[in-house]
Fold:
Amino acid sequence: MRIDLHCHSTASDGTDTPAELVRNAGAAGLDVVALTDHDTTRGHAEAVAALPRGLTLVTGAELSCRIDGISMHMLAYLFDPEEPALLAERELVRDDRVPRARAMVARLNELGVPVTWEQVARIAGEGSVGRPHVATALVELGVVPTVNDAFTENWLSDGGRAHVAKHETDPFEAIRLVKGAGGVTVFAHPGASKRGRTVSESVVAELAAAGLDGIEVDHMDHDADTRARLRGLAADLGLLVTGSSDYHGSRKTCVLGEYTTDPEVYGEITRRATGAFPVPGTGGA
Structure:
């Protein structure tokens, strides 16, 4: 089985619609794909309706978290999307996205970059607006060559000249909320140091003690040494190890199925989840 547990659609900052995502996942030879848009489940219904035969969909979200001033992302799988406490927290995070993006546009203007809110809003479309949309605007203007090049201290990385903080959930609270909604939690790309500061191994150990289920080890932002270190940490802490593409369509260079998750780990994730269940494809709409 080929299992990719971290993908994005136009419901947040990907370039494939949810329907296109699942069709492309099927065409790429995946058996299981997870839709994990940022702080939203809005794309799930469309993905389910278009799910091709032979492909299973894992519903989820990537939750924006922060601890000790460090931004981190928590993948949440197979939770009840209508559970009130987790739904309220996701809405709180999403509601802060527009004023934050507007503030980043203002800072870029102060730095002499002629980006406009209308440009960023056009790029975001119906998705949850975020830094990748601002980064795409910088690419359109020729300020940086690629989206990844916008995530530096010069521009949009944590602490960068145009960075603006947003409401982010305490990761211990995120674990509690996701567990309360019957879901499973995996710390996304914990060693992605190119994105900014990363949390310490001691914090990961504390998260594990609080109920964290796993860490994403095989990821494009982890080199071989980082993957080996994280695999050892997971073994020491009894955490599941996942691998994923973090696919964003044309917004990033990664491709569907570039990294995958072991079928036994996927099986354990589905066994632990009680809020929702994987959806088998029946042919799509």
In short: The first strand starts at residue 3 and ends at 7. The chain has a mean pLDDT of 94. Residues 9 and 133 are 13 Å apart (CA to CA).
